[in-house]
Each structure stands twice: as C-alpha cells, then as structure tokens.
C-alpha cells in the first residue's frame, strides 16, 4: 500500500481568474483508515466553473481554506475499507479533490450505479453526474420546456449546455446554441442535433438572435451571463423563462456587465430563476432513468476531453475560463 499521497492545495485566493500560482502540490502521509471509513484511489477528476467560486469565497458551499486540498468531484475505487456499506473494489463518486487518495466516511459519496457500467465510469462525472443533472432539471423544472417552444442555450458546446440543448430537442423545442468557433458550432449542429448554432466569435449575436427568433425566445438556458444575457432579455417572449445555471463571463471579475433590458421582464411577464443542482437530489433517480434511456437510444451525445496526469490539474482547470474547453473536462490520474 502506498504511504504518501500527492495533492494540490490552495495556496492563495484567486483575485480574478485562476492562476497556477494559486495552488501548490504537496505530499501528505496517508492516515490510517479508522472504523467506519474507507480509502479511495482517485482515478478521474471533474472540472467545473463553480470551483473558482469555492476558491474565492463562501457561496452555497463553504470556501476552500488556504492549505486545504482543492475540492472537486471525482470517481475512484475503494482500496481499503472499514465501512460495511463500501467494499474494496467498489467504484464511488464524491468530493475527493485534486489528490491521489482520499479518506471518507461515506458522507455525500455515491456508488457508481449499475446502469452506468454499460458506459465509461467517468460518466458519473458527466452525463450521470452534476453535468447531466443540471441540464435535466434546468430544462424540465426551471425552464419548463414544452413541445413547440423556442430554446436558446449559451456555452452550447460545453458539458452542461450541450446536454441541455439535446434534452430540449428531445422534448420537441426548436433549439439554437451559442458557441465559440467553427469547430464547436459544427459539432453542436451535426453531432448534438441542434437546429442552428451562433458563432459568437465571428457573428453578431444580436443580429443572429433576431434572425433565428423573429417572434422571440421562450426559454433561455444561461451559462455565461453578461452581454448575451442582456440581449436575450430584450428578445424574451411573453411568459418566457430564463434558466440561470452559470455566469462564467463574470467569474473572473468584480466589474459585472450592467443589465440594461431587465425592465422587459416586467412587460413580458417573464421569469428569471437560478438553481443549484443539489436542490433536486431526491429526484436524481428520475433523471438517471431518462438520461440512460436517451443515451441508449442514441438520442444524446456526450463529449469529453480527457487529459492525463495529476500534475496537469491547474492547466485543465484554466481551460474552462479561456474558451479552450470543448465538452466535459476530465483528468485521468491513475489506472484501474
């Protein structure tokens, strides 16, 4: 059994965007597994924009303390256990962080579900993890998407946005995505099955939205905030719904884009609502079932980018804020 554990800890709080200098790698001695605990060997790490907020401040979750292992979702395999509910060899997902090994007592830890074994185990971090859950409940419960609706989603080639658009399409909506670059837009239309994709790097977003939604937008699934959100508010239909899933355009600054069109929400009787995916944890089983069926029927496409090596964690995380990410960002740090 390995005695030491390599880990990335928070060394300083990011002022704006994350920099590698905000973390440092250390070696920790693996503590003895106590009664009721088990030791997990991390295999895949997940990267999500909300981690930047965890590094900076208290939010819906406590901030990561200086010197603490960087918190992240991951999938690993149990290599030692003194907990009857978790056996050696079991695959589990939890907030195990940027490290090779983690001790847990089972709180907020889930077994990798049997239906997921037909797919790569890392799907517990993507389609069957917070990515798929956020898309599913954002579309169905917050957006209340119906057949015939017009649906727009930002970060359409990202992990949540791509799944959200596909779910809306399955329901029967007209679906348009916003993404950066020809390669991403091509995938969004040809692989994910969207009706159209707006390339914000080359096209005028306001003009394209006006062309594609001549009667306005019923549902907007927002992952970026900022100027695009303000444009959408100006184009929202009566009784429209704006799903506030993320605001990545403002994660690296305190100088937020001022919303000038918010009064249109009043005249259009529209609703703008945020949510945290853990609000729906009691209903995750419902989402698992639908997502699995749609995946099996080839109605959902999941795209991941997998990098290798724990030493690359900071660089993979930075990609989320530069537009370099394409699909779900994962890091494989060990073999099964």
Produce the secondary structure layout.
Blueprint: E1 4-10, E2 23-29, E3 38-46, H1 50-56, E4 74-81, E5 91-94, E6 101-104, E7 110-111, H2 130-142, E8 150-153, H3 159-171, E9 174-179, H4 182-190, E10 196-199, H5 205-212, E11 217-222, H6 226-235, E12 236-244, H7 264-267, E13 271-274, H8 284-296, E14 304-308, H9 313-319, E15 328-332
Parallel strand pairs: 8-9, 8-11, 9-10, 11-12, 12-13, 14-15
Antiparallel strand pairs: 1-2, 3-4, 3-6, 3-15, 4-5, 5-7
Short description:
This protein is of the alpha/beta class and 336 residues long.
Sum up the structure in keywords.
9 helices; 25% strand; Quinone Oxidoreductase, Chain A, domain 1; Rossmann fold; 336 residues
Give your account of this protein's structure:
- The protein has 336 residues and is of the alpha/beta class.
- It folds into two domains: 4-126 and 304-332, Medium-chain alcohol dehydrogenases, catalytic domain (Quinone Oxidoreductase, Chain A, domain 1, Alpha-Beta Complex); 130-278, NAD(P)-binding Rossmann-like Domain (Rossmann fold), CATH 3.40.50.720.
- 25% of the residues lie in helices and 25% in strands.
- It has helices spanning 50-56, 130-142, 159-171, 182-190, 205-212, 226-235, 264-267, 284-296, 313-319, and strands spanning 4-10, 23-29, 38-46, 74-81, 91-94, 101-104, 110-111, 150-153, 174-179, 196-199, 217-222, 236-244, 271-274, 304-308, 328-332.
- Strands 3, 4, 5, 6, 7, 14 and 15 form a seven-stranded mixed sheet that branches. A six-stranded parallel sheet has the order 10-9-8-11-12-13, with helices on both faces. Strands 1-2 form a two-stranded antiparallel ribbon.
- The mean pLDDT is 93.
């Amino acid at each position: 059994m390995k005695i030491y554990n390599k880990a990335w800890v928070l060394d300083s709080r990011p002022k704006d965007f994350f920099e590698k200098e905000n973390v440092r790698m250390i070696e920790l001695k693996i503590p003895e597994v106590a009664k009721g605990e088990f030791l997990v060997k991390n295999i895949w790490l997940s990267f999500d924009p909300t981690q930047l907020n965890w590094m900076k401040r208290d939010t819906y979750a406590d901030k990561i303390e200086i010197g603490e292992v960087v918190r992240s979702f991951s999938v690993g395999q149990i290599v030692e256990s003194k907990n009857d509910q978790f056996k050696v060899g079991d695959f589990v997902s939890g907030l195990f962080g940027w490290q090779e090994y983690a001790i847990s007592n089972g709180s907020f830890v889930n077994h990798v579900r049997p239906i997921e074994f037909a797919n790569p185990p890392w799907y517990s971090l993507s389609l069957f993890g917070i990515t798929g859950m956020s898309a599913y409940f954002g579309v169905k419960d917050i957006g209340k998407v119906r057949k015939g609706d017009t649906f727009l989603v930002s970060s359409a080639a990202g992990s949540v946005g791509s799944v959200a658009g596909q779910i809306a399409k399955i329901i029967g909506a007209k679906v348009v995505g916003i993404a950066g670059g020809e390669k991403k837009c091509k995938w969004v239309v040809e692989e994910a099955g969207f009706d159209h994709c707006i390339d914000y790097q080359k096209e005028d977003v306001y003009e394209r939205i006006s062309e594609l939604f001549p009667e306005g937008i019923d549902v907007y699934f927002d992952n970026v905030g900022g100027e695009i959100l303000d444009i959408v508010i100006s184009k929202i239909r009566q009784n429209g719904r704006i799903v506030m899933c993320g605001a990545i355009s403002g994660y690296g600054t305190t100088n937020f884009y001022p919303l000038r069109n918010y009064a249109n929400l009043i005249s259009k009787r529209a609703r703008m609502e945020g949510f945290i995916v853990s609000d729906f944890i009691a209903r995750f089983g419902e989402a698992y079932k639908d997502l699995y069926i749609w995946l099996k029927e080839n109605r959902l496409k999941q795209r991941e980018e997998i990098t290798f090596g724990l030493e690359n964690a900071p660089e993979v995380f930075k990609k989320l804020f530069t537009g370099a990410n394409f699909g779900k960002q994962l890091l494989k740090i060990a073999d099964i």
